[in-house]
Amino acid sequence: SLGQVMAVKVFDISKLSSKLVDEKLDSFIAESKVLSKLNNKNTVKFFGVHKDNQTFKIFLELVIGGSLSKIISTYGRLPEKLVKKYTLEILYGLEYLHMHNVIHRDIKGANILVDRDGTCKLSDFGSAKEIIEEFEFSEQNSLKGTPNWMAPECVKNMEYSRFSDIWSLGCTIIEMLTGKPPFHQFKTQMAALYNIMNVREPPTLPENIKVSEECK
Question: Which of 89, 140, 153, 169 has its CA 20 to 30 A from that of 215?
């Protein structure tokens, strides 16, 4: 009906009978009305959702260039000049979401898409993260992803705020500059989680990464 190509995330809900999942879906469907009204060049456009007995679908703007983490894995760490450009664009997207009382909750290279003209767009924000995690946990019976970008208060108390997004942005800047997330030296999720919970200051750049004082 929109007359344009879009991306569709499809989840199989036929095997999920959890009341909690149903409640989260209903909550997200209600929130989708808010998300669909957001319109900013640095956030992926959200078109809506559709639920039937078999599947739950999320309709999104199609971003051709792929994720920032894919670019890093292909080309390695990024030069400071490019990191500066991408960071500014991510901040524009975050500012827009926060102005509309939406907390992203999962800023990291994998959730930042880069269009073919180099524009960064934030994806998977708000309750979308909860929904995706619920499906993936049900399917795999294990936690997906790594906690390396999570702020200490998120690990300790599962509390998310605008400030949590800023911590995660700092972790993403380290990811861009080094080609790896902070705390990557820990071999297990539990070791990384324990370290983040007890950290007293933000992670630092490795000494071998040479960047300007302004960047630091």
Answer: 153
pLDDT along the chain (216 residues), means of 10: 87 72 73 82 90 86 92 95 96 94 89 93 73 55 62 79 91 94 82 82 84 90
106 is catalytic: yes
Q: Which residue has the tokens 């071999």?
A: 187
DSSP for 46-77, written as a single string:
EEEEEE-SSEEEEEEE--TT-BHHHHHHHH-S
Rounded Cα distance, 57 and 9, in Å: 6
Taking the C-alpha atoms of residue 118 and residue 114, their distance in angstroms, rounded to an integer, is 6
3-state secondary structure 71-96: HHHHHCCCCHHHHHHHHHHHHHHHHH
